[in-house]
Amino acid sequence: MKNLVFILIAFSLFFVLSCSNKSANKVQNEDLKVYQIEDVKLVSFPLDSTKNGKPLDAEMFFNRVFDYCYIDNIETLIIPINRDRLAFYDINSQKEYHSIEILKDRDILNFSFVNKDSIFVFYEINEFNNDKNEPVCIHLVNYNGEGKVCEYNIDTLNFEENTDLRLPFVVDTDLQPTIINGNVFFMTQTSRIDNIGSNEYLKKHFPLFAYYNSNTKNIKFSKSIEFPHIKENVFYNTYFRKIRYCLSSNNLPLLRFFYSSTLYEWDYINDKVSSHTLNSKVIDSIKPLPNENSLPQSLEAVYGSILYDKYNEMYYSFVHLNEVVYGNYYTLLILADKDFNYLGEMLNPNLGGNFEFYEDNIISYYYSNDSIHVSYQTLKKTDKPLQPYLDSIKGVLDNQIEKNKK
């Protein structure tokens, strides 16, 4: 009898706690609201005709490389011109007021203005011969153009002989470089790893991530970062970037793998990884490919860029849906707070390809018709409940799938 009473009490407690958790989750979901991107202003002005050259994205479409900052109280847009110099534009006067030239035999790929003493310029050699084995080409200069080409010491002491380093590093041309305290973070050439999950892949060790310390000149690879949830006969592949990353709220690299809802935060000093979950509530988990010979287009979706807005303490995580499956181009934007708590989601957000956060603004830039355009947008929380909006997105996507099947 005592055992029966104990079982009844335990069951009652379990039932009450379950109802409480469901109620709490329901309240939490009901409290979530729809976010939307709103235009603030667009500043447009002609390229300074007194200076020579065109911006980098005039010849490399979608490579909208730029930096936005305040220098000596001047609201400044920095863009590469002719691929061999950086032009500093005063957005208010709409004139170029400063320029830094890079050596003529180098083509700028990307750059980052940290401060007037540290400007990292990533480049490639025009005559690509003697430097083809360099892991990455960086010119570290100051505001006066004084600087030098960075030297490297590659640390591979703790790696096995069958380790494939996949150099040179990837230099993204559609996102800002990830740099903190003189440490520059890189992804290796994962685009050439096209058999994730195969026996060949499982037999080798592919370091996926590394950092360069501009003070010690050392390059260190991570031994703890690897493609997650991969085992024999579990296959993933994509033509998109396989890893996207940004600095987390803790100023540590935060990695998003193209198929995983888990984010990985890297303590690069100790080479330790902690995980956080941030997934879409519109689509299910991304299922593996049927076999190792399956085309990458067989994936229903891929996770794209992960970005952190330090001013408003929010994460932006993108998901790109497969056009073949959905019959159209669709992108989802997942929003979360600094602790990775889900805040909302939106379909096809009206955002530029490359953008920066500054206070309450989202800044993007593009060049067209011999003019420079600087867009200011902001993220607004509305009073609309989130769940009906998510349901409407699912309805749109389900209808597209059915239409596409016909």
Can you give a write-up of this model?
This protein has helices spanning 2-31, 199-203, 323-326, 386-405; strands at residues 33-46, 67-71, 74-81, 85-90, 95-101, 106-115, 118-125, 138-141, 147-149, 153-155, 179-180, 183-187, 209-213, 218-221, 243-247, 253-257, 262-267, 272-277, 301-309, 314-321, 330-337, 342-347, 355-358, 361-368, 371-385. By secondary structure, it is mainly β. Residues 4-27 have low confidence and may be disordered.
Task: Quote the beta fraction.
Answer: 35-45%
| Rg over CA atoms | 24 Å
User: Alpha-carbon distance between the termini?
Assistant: 63 Å
Describe the strand arrangement of the main beta sheet, using strand numbers.
10-14-13-12-11
Mean pLDDT metric: 87
Task: Give a brief description.
The chain is mainly beta and 406 residues long. 15% of the residues lie in helices and 40% in strands. The strands form six sheets. Strands 10-14-13-12-11 form a five-stranded mixed β-sheet, with no helix packed on it. Strands 1-25-24-23 form a four-stranded antiparallel β-sheet. The protein has a four-stranded antiparallel β-sheet with strand order 2-3-4-5, with no helix packed on it.
Task: Summarize the SSE layout with pairings.
Layout: H1 2-31, E1 33-46, E2 67-71, E3 74-81, E4 85-90, E5 95-101, E6 106-115, E7 118-125, E8 138-141, E9 147-149, E10 153-155, E11 179-180, E12 183-187, H2 199-203, E13 209-213, E14 218-221, E15 243-247, E16 253-257, E17 262-267, E18 272-277, E19 301-309, E20 314-321, H3 323-326, E21 330-337, E22 342-347, E23 355-358, E24 361-368, E25 371-385, H4 386-405
Parallel strand pairs: 10-14
Antiparallel strand pairs: 1-25, 2-3, 3-4, 4-5, 6-7, 7-8, 8-9, 11-12, 12-13, 13-14, 15-16, 16-17, 17-18, 19-20, 20-21, 21-22, 23-24, 24-25
